[in-house]
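Example S7 (structure tokens).
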């Protein structure tokens, strides 16, 4: 991951597809003029760079002076956004509606009130169809302004209609904003700490949720009110590790879209996230048949027109698809086969290095490390775990940072790196204390690994059996069980006791569960 601040113009150009760059060139050439030819030179120079360096721009674009560069960059940035807006107007309903509102404003400024009202009516139909309530409210408020300038015989009845419409939208928007605020706050809490670690975490999230959840009549809620309410339930049950209830509300989230197919087209990002959360819940409840069915739905969206036309949707679809393909390998115990997908994920991360956030990369690295650990390739596992351990910012997904260090310890033990094991154990212990994530399972694992280095080979099996028995007491503990969501410690111990690969143990369990 890049450590330096990325130049916004460089980042924007690198995010563009070949067709978007081609369209920009066509758009820019239509503008013409000497100044424009210079900003195209800047574009061409940056497009060829691997890392942003202004001295390379000055070297390649010889007729540009250093003093001109800031203005040229600002002009280029604006023209790029204008070009991208034109290419996306037919693929993004929000941009399309806003374009019509802008056209209505132009007509209003020309004093063509009737034409402006007709344009607004057309845009309002679209806003209503696709549940764009904020835009709908903006249109209604604009209509009020025009009606106050343009007097007709129907003014009295029209005033009543438009006032009622405005009041209704205000009321509905209040509910939507309320539930969306609740949803984003719960999601932020999940990103910070992951699953509830103790009574303090559980009490905090329950008090927040119960204090803010409203008793509502679902039949009277709008699409977005229901959407954000379902989201809130999903984040809440995910944090407290009630995965059956998490699945229930994630499925309601998906069903909401499938009952409103137009919204899949216009809000595909939220539909993708709904499918992602259904798959997360099915993974943790180990329901393989439903998992496969939903994974197929997710993968098929790769060919959807709205996904192919939108870089953000394309990244989300691929990201979720890769994560859940790995999860499927976990569920089936196919760790060796799962490593075949790693080069594709690496290529995906590299191709989208300016778009993917750190959180997504952490998840990828941890899951890849687990794949290699599962098939006994401990050096490869350590390589990916080190990418997490070397990340300086540990404020995001502290759970992954903590369990990466524990899995790293076990991997070093498997490689018989006993010389530095004691130091690593102390370092991991200090990190867990610092992160306030030192629970009974983690403490037991650290003591267990420290003991192993001093046990004679003929006594190892007995120690593994004892440790398995000890750990089983926490498998269903409300807080301690989260350790087993990150590390399948029981299967690893079974593999040591039975002296066979861990993936064979998990594969056998998968066949029995099936």
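Recovered sequence:
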């Amino acid at each position: 991951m890049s450590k330096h601040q990325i130049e916004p113009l460089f980042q924007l150009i690198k995010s563009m597809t070949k067709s978007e760059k081609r369209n920009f060139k066509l758009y820019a050439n239509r503008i013409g003029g000497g100044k424009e030819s210079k900003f195209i030179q800047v574009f061409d120079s940056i497009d060829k760079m691997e890392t942003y360096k202004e001295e390379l721009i000055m070297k390649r674009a010889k007729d540009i002076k250093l003093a001109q560069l800031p203005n040229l960059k600002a002009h280029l940035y604006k023209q790029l956004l204008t070009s991208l807006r034109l290419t996306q107007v037919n693929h993004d309903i929000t941009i399309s509606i806003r374009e019509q509102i802008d056209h209505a404003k132009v007509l209003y400024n020309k004093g063509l009130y009737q034409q402006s009202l007709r344009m607004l009516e057309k845009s309002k139909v679209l806003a209503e169809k696709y549940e764009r309530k904020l835009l709908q409210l903006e249109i209604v408020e604009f209509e009020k302004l025009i009606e106050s300038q343009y007097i007709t015989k129907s003014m009295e009845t029209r005033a009543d209609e438009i006032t009622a419409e405005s009041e209704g939208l205000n009321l509905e928007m209040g509910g939507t904003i309320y539930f969306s605020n609740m949803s984003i706050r719960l999601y932020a809490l999940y990103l910070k700490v992951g699953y509830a670690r103790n009574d303090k975490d559980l009490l905090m999230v329950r008090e927040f949720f119960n204090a803010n959840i409203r008793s509502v009549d679902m039949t009277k809620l709008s699409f977005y009110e229901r959407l954000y309410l379902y989201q809130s339930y999903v984040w809440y049950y995910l944090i407290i590790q009630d995965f059956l209830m998490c699945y229930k509300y994630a499925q309601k989230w998906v069903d909401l879209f499938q009952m409103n197919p137009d919204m899949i087209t216009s809000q595909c990002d939220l539909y993708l996230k709904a499918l992602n959360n259904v798959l997360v819940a099915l993974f943790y409840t180990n329901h393989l048949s439903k998992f496969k069915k939903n994974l197929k739905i997710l993968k098929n969206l790769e060919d959807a027109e709205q996904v192919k036309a939108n870089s953000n949707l394309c990244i989300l679809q691929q990201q979720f698809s890769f994560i859940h393909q790995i999860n499927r390998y976990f569920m089936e115990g196919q760790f060796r086969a799962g490593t075949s997908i790693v080069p594709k994920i690496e290529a995906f991360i590299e191709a989208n290095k300016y778009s993917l956030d750190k959180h997504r990369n952490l998840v990828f690295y941890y899951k890849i490390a687990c794949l290699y650990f599962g098939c006994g390739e401990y050096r490869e596992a350590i390589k990916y775990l080190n990418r997490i351990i070397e990340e300086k910012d540990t404020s995001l997904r502290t759970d992954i940072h903590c369990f990466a260090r524990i899995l790293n310890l076990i991997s070093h033990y498997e490689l018989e790196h006993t010389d530095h094991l004691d130091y690593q154990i102390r370092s991991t212990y200090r990190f867990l204390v610092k992160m306030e994530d030192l629970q009974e399972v983690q403490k037991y694992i650290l003591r267990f690994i420290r003991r192993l280095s001093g046990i004679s080979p003929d006594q190892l099996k007995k120690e593994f059996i004892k440790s398995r028995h000890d750990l089983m007491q926490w498998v269903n503990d409300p807080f301690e069980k989260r350790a087993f969501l990150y590390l399948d410690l029981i299967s690893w111990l079974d593999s040591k006791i039975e002296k066979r690969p861990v993936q064979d143990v998990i594969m056998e369990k998968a066949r029995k569960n099936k």
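Notes on this example. The chain is about 75% helix and 0% strand.
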